[in-house]
């Protein structure tokens, strides 16, 4: 028999722990007689999730990680996993969660007024992006640096990708624009891998593909890169060439929101 992989064993251990800590009455099942171990039986979890007991047993024994996103979602519901536990489950299985709550991506109750004190506390350029890479909040240094984007009044475009690809001044403002623009598209693809069915995301990409040949070519390349920060340079119309080190941070309670901080290099 094939030796279980490390990934399958981690998935198995997490599911087993979730099953063992649940009590029958927590899922509407009778306690029923003596149980050899704490928690639910494998057949009970399988029944609650609507999958076969044999298949669930294989998963919990680490004999397979070939679980569909739909089945994994059903198991998360059967085990009453929290949002963080569900996210971790899908991460272990290397799958995108089709049932990810929309409020998480939109930032929930954390909107611009609540974010403003955060970015204002940073002395260097800082701004927050949502899951579509729209700017939600920014400080004065960021508005001064990105005058054509965050400092523009009236503000007609706050999406980072649309600014980079559609604003004429962006090509001269961003040093090495062609390379940076392609990298941004690759980072956006990786950042939104779990949002394939999001209508707003599809509309954004579709609009950019039709309006910008450069974006269309970069999107069709299928390139994927992690958004890790690094060196950034800009040709500022008043301050000349500026160099920064970029740091991208996730907000703990709103994982789809990103705080970007630029520290002078």
UniProtKB/TrEMBL annotation:
A Pfam family: HTH_31
Superkingdom in the source lineage: Bacteria
UniProt-listed SUPFAM superfamilies: lambda repressor-like DNA-binding domains
Gene Ontology molecular functions: DNA binding
Record-annotated HTH cro/C1-type domain positions: 14-86
Cited InterPro entries: Cro/C1-type_HTH (IPR001387), Lambda_DNA-bd_dom_sf (IPR010982), MLTR_LBD (IPR041413)
Signal sequence interval, chain numbering: none
Entry-linked Gene3D superfamilies: 3.30.450.180, lambda repressor-like DNA-binding domains
Name under which the protein is recorded: Helix-turn-helix domain-containing protein
Source species of the chain: Aquincola agrisoli
């Amino acid at each position: 028999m094939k030796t279980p992989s490390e990934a399958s064993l981690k998935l198995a251990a997490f599911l087993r722990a979730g099953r063992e800590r649940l009590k029958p009455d927590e899922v509407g099942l009778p306690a029923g007689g003596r149980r050899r171990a704490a928690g639910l039986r494998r057949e009970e979890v399988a029944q609650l999730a609507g999958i076969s007991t044999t298949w669930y047993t294989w998963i919990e024994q680490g004999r397979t990680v070939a679980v569909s996103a739909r089945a994994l979602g059903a198991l998360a519901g059967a085990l009453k996993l929290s949002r963080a536990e569900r996210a971790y489950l899908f991460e272990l299985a290397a799958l995108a969660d089709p049932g990810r709550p929309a409020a998480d991506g939109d930032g929930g109750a954390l909107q611009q007024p609540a974010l403003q004190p955060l970015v204002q506390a940073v002395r260097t350029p800082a701004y927050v992006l949502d899951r579509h890479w729209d700017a939600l909040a920014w400080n004065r240094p960021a508005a001064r640096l990105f005058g054509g984007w965050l400092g523009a009044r009236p503000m007609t475009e706050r999406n980072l990708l649309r600014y980079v690809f559609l604003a004429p001044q962006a090509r001269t403002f961003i040093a090495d624009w062609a390379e940076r623009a392609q990298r941004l598209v690759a980072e956006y693809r990786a950042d939104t891998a779990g949002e394939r069915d999001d209508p707003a995301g599809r509309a954004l990409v579709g609009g950019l593909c039709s309006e910008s040949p450069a974006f269309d070519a970069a999107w069709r390349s299928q390139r994927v890169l992690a958004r890790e920060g690094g060196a950034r340079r800009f040709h500022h119309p008043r301050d000349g060439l500026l160099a920064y080190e970029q740091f991208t941070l996730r907000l703990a309670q709103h994982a789809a929101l990103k705080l970007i901080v630029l520290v002078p290099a």
